[in-house]
Design a protein that fits this description.
The protein is built from 2 helices and no strands. The two termini are 19 Å apart. It has one domain. By secondary structure, the protein is an all-alpha fold.
Length: 50
């Protein structure tokens, strides 16, 4: 749900602020679609398999 997306956005932002990045791994097709539709796939990189 949207609260989970908010958590991912916040974690990604905190990682970038500290010089790192949050990378998603083993993302299911359903979650990948949600990330694509919401535009979060541009902000949260995948591991290539995503």
């Amino acid at each position: 749900d949207s609260s989970g997306l908010g958590v991912l956005m916040g974690a990604g932002r905190r990682a970038r602020d500290q010089g790192g990045e949050l990378v998603l791994r083993e993302v299911s097709p359903q979650i990948r679609r949600v990330l694509d539709v919401t535009g979060l796939s541009d902000l949260l990189p995948g591991d290539g398999g995503y």
